[in-house]
Please model this.
Amino acid sequence: MTRKRLILLGFIALKFLLQFLLLSSEYDLQRDEYLHLDQANHLAWGYLSVPPFTSWTSYIIQLLGNSIFWIKFFPALYGALTIYVVWKAIEELGGNSFALILGATCVLFSALLRLNTLYQPNSFDVLSWTVLYFILLKFIKTDNLKWLYIGATVFAIGFLNKYNIAFLLIGLLPAFLITEHRKIFLKPSLYFAIVLGVFLMLPNLVWQYKNNFPVFHHLKELAETQLVNVNRLDFLKNQLLFFIGSFIVIFSSFYALLFYKPFSKYRIFFYAILFTLIAFIYFKAKDYYAIGIYPIYIAFGSVYLSEILKDGWKKYLQPVAIAVPLLLFIPIFNVAFPNKSPEYIIQHSENYKKLGMLRWEDGKDHLLPQDFADMLGWKELALKVDSIYLNLPNKNNTLILCDNYGQAGAINYYTKQKLNAVSFNADYINWFDLSRELVNLIRVKEADEVNAELQETSPFFQNSILADSITNQYAREYGTAIFAFIGAKIDIRERIRDEIDEKKNYR
Model:
């Protein structure tokens, strides 16, 4: 085994090790993770908020035992593969050992460490962007048309993971038009490749059509409830923070793509990032949507720096360049990961506030970062629902109805009773089982909507009680109530069907 390969394996091993060490056992899974895991029980070619790829991974995780280890393994794997692709890109650009180590260090000690702690489509999205840019590099270098077909296939897989990858094309199209690479539009193979890509995406597109394109409703809802709070200046500031240890490397790549002669044929990459960022800013996208742009530019910057730091006294700056990402990562380690207790975070809130980490999607500051607050209270909820369920008469005829997908997914993941909690929220609206008579209702209600629940629902049941609530004061779900409605006086399935129809018609 060569020295370079040993170094690469060392980086990949360190990547996996860090991803597991950065998580404290005080935290549960994050709310989105529960939804993605539950999709394995309802395989389809599409979902209301995401394409199907994540559900396929969830199914594999389920076959492997559905343990926390495997849930965290896959995002770590996608992060490790991102390092590998950047490594290969550096090799394609002629980079030496210093360039390889610098590039791998920059990718390892970046925002990807935070991103890869969560089982969400984002980790594979970043990998897809990086692979596609690598394929573009290979196509420009070799002019081999096979890379068009490989690129179309990779884009389709990335599209089936997260629609965000469409921004890559939005940025690349004008970049092609203003460079000499515009001649690609004269190649018939481009259009055959496009047909291949569309064919691979077709099942999801057909699903969207049959379900009245829920992706547009999701985007509209996202824009009204979350993106409206996005500050464009904060978006740009956070781009720097995501790869703060790689700041010099990435900006060196911009200079090299414009003025370094060996990179002149790759100048399209400079225009691509420019147009892609403009598109993200115009649509007020969330800052992390753009993370996938940067790994390939670390490859260009690493190779360029290896050339200008190879002679004379400058070669002594090589260890400094490698040390910078690691040294800048150390203070970030203390704030960016769920490795500190909620009490510690509250006591040191200024460290989090100045980085904007306490600001949630509602545009307001809270006690904990939103992702961290979204990792608390779920086991407590499932345990209490289990306990209430076991004490119900006719418990097999019980519906567990939640206010949001996090509640439903967490109950379904942690419960010992194989319950099937549902919600009118997200994909759960399509997963109701109304084939059996429903005698009881366990209602999980968010804290700000608790007061009216007994008054509205108890007339339809013989007995009604507020059975319990979430008591973890640091959880986003703090105060969420659990009601038990026992002995239905009417067939409540009709009311539920009406509610489902109303929600779907609204969409």
